[in-house]
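USER:
I would value a second opinion on how I read folds in token form. Give me a protein, with the fold worked out from its sequence. Write it directly below this note and I will take it from there.

ASSISTANT:
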Amino acid sequence: MGNKRQSIGRIQKLIEAAVEDFMIQANIVPKTDLGADVGSASFRFNNIYTGDLHLQNDRGHYIIIEEEEYLSIKNVKTGKLYKFVLEEIVEEVGIEEDEEEEPTTPPTRKWWPF
């Protein structure tokens, strides 16, 4: 047990000494299922760089897949594959602050069954 504690202490010192990047060539696995978080409500990570994103809890199991021209999501439980429908948002330009805008109906959203 003493050797494990010494190893853990050395690893902690290395992590604390790391100024820029912490790089590993291994898996990071929590000791128990759903037993650890990445970041917290107060200290969040800025970006997550990943390949396909696997999401699983007691209600569902999905994989978000980046295709060349679109994103898709696979329901692993049913085997069904869905395509994200993305619509480009173009900001309107040239509206003066003094001008009153005509009221518009908000766009309808398409909700998909997943």
Remarks:
- The chain has one domain: 2-83.
- The chain has a mean pLDDT of 79.
- The first helix runs from residue 2 to 17.
- DSSP finds one helix and four strands in the chain.
